[in-house]
Amino acid sequence: xxxxxxxxxxxxxxxxxxxxxxxxxxxxxxxxxxxxxxxxxxxxxxxxxxxxxxxxxxxxxxxxxxxxxxxxxxxxxxxxxxxxxxxxxxxxxxxxxxxxxxxxxxxxxxxxxxxxxxxxxxxxxxxxxxxxxxxxxxxxxxxxxxxxxxxxxxxxxxxxxxxxxxxxxxxxxxxxxxxxxxxxxxxxxxxxxxxxxxxxxxxxxxxxxxxxxxxxxxxxxxxxxxxxxxxxxxxxxxxxxxxxxxxxxxxxxxxxxxxxxxxxxxxxxxxxxxxxxxxxxxxxxxxxxxxxxxxxxxxxxxxxxxxxxxxxxxxxxxxxxxxxxxxxxxxxxxxxxxxxxxxxxxxxxxxxxxxxxxxxxxxxxxxxxxxxxxxxxxxxxxxxxxxxxxxxxxxxxxxxxxxxxxxxxxxxxxxx
Length: 416
Prior knowledge:
This protein is of the alpha/beta class. The chain has 16 helices and 15 strands. The strands form 4 sheets. The chain has a 7-stranded mixed beta sheet with strand order 3-11-10-9-6-4-5, with helices on both faces. Strands 1-2-13 form a 3-stranded mixed beta sheet.
């Protein structure tokens, strides 16, 4: 073969790759343009400070009040939590460079698992890189083709994705509808095991699952109950144990998944607590656990101190109620529609995606950091600004946030 022919033979597949790449790029750009046109584009603001009730935002002047973090208890920058992370970094290093079963388990991992099991009053605990991973790793291990899983239709995306990985019969009941759940449980009676799966608190609306009724039906029809407590752990219930404590069913819920990335310091990580045989089986077969690096020591150190603070006192958790109701009552009196019940998640319902985004941008100019939520995070026509109250917010912070909502709401005809 001549040199020219050899060169042409090499260039032909390269040109094909370039054409394919250009075509793929065009498809992606078209999809991105459609997101922008729909008003659902999600820009990422840049924070130039530590997380807290007051933050600095790139492009904004002065201190900004943050009303959209999952930092429910204000522990993300709590000095004792931060110091615990520094201490763990110095003593244990930046990371393990390993999964848990090879050489990635340190005594601080086992200590945190023990404290989380104690906190939730369950037999044992297993740590994951995130609660998304905990949800992805549970159902495939627990349930087989002869089993049935009954899931609330508005469960978090991580639950939905986790259930898709298992081979159980998948059944979906209407949101918090006990009658429909009972209907599904009756249909699932031929299954070996039945698992009812629900968020404890549904994060987009701040509504609390009817766990007492769910547990009644589960016991009547021989099912187990699983709850995802990411938006409840640390601050719901008299001692902050979560939705199951709030509703008096701690001994009736078999499996709890939750996160270290919200109220418990806000860094990263998730976990499952439940019966020891289940936790032992997850350590052997749960793919996100077996194939993901161990949680970094500084993250574990921070989370451990956060849990210790909550085990020692319920004062922080109890401070949430009055602050939450202050915001909800003042906003309702001003004419806004606030979804959910007495939960720190306070969705200000607006309906239109463009309006939610525009109002959030204008709120930032008034010194209030909030974000508009729209499709696909929430259903079409249900756009909102999701406000989240923190124990670190003062009454003055809350009043200033309400005043900013009233000002922007009047400008756009949302309130009079």
